[in-house]
Amino acid sequence: MAKPLTTPTAPTIVGGRGRDEVYVAAVPLRATKGPAQLLRSAAYSLNLWDFQHFMVIIKPQIPPSPSQALVYDFQPKDPENLYAALAVISNKAIPGAVLSRKLSKLPRSKCWFVGSSKGNAVDMACEFNKNWESNLWVGHHDCRDYTNGLVESLTGEKYVLERLRTSMGSLR
């Protein structure tokens, strides 16, 4: 005898909308092979805050896949290109790209819950990305600015990276 179909339990609804979870994560910067890559790896291992790449992770709370997470980040179009590295060192803008991809689970380290979204976080992120300027200029318009801006759009919190940096004194 076949099992009857069951309806999944409804997600928690606040104000008529699902409250998607919003996280910030840090990963090593990408660099060209050789000395630049070794320097980047050492800086990340030492938890030097300014030598990390930041991104936003959204964990939707409504079907179809509440077990999956979506990553949104902003980086150079070709992060391992020597000319991109030279442009960064020269303090010049380079072509950037907003990327999104799926994760099967949240990272185990350097990943912090920063709040719940004010609405459908995936739709809000797509709208935010439509208006994001794609030229990347390290220190002026980079992954940190993108992360701060997207988190503010999703949760209302301004300057989330400064809060995390202050609360994680060892990540300076």
Could you explain the architecture of this structure?
- By secondary structure, this protein is of the alpha+beta class.
- It has a single domain (16-164), classed as endopeptidase fold (from Nostoc punctiforme) (Alpha-Beta Complex), CATH 3.90.1720.
- It is built from five helices and eight strands, in the order βββαββαββαβαα.
- It has helices at residues 35-45, 82-89, 121-130, 143-155, 160-167; strands at 13-14, 17-18, 21-28, 52-59, 69-76, 94-103, 111-116, 135-136.
- A hairpin with a 2-residue loop joins β1 (13-14) and β2 (17-18).
Set out the fold topology.
Elements (H helix, E strand, L loop, with lengths): L12 E2 L2 E2 L2 E8 L6 H11 L6 E8 L9 E8 L5 H8 L4 E10 L7 E6 L4 H10 L4 E2 L6 H13 L4 H8 L5
Antiparallel strand pairs: 1-2, 3-4, 3-7, 4-5, 5-6, 6-8
Number of helices: 5
Strand order across the biggest sheet?
7-3-4-5-6-8
How much strand? 25-35%
For the record, the CATH architecture stands as Alpha-Beta Complex
Question: Tell me about the biggest sheet?
Answer: 6 strands, antiparallel
Q: Which range best describes the helical content: under 10%, 10-25%, 25-40%, 40-55%, 55-70% or over 70%?
A: 25-40%
* Shape descriptor: globular
Terminal CA distance: 61 Å
CATH class: Alpha Beta
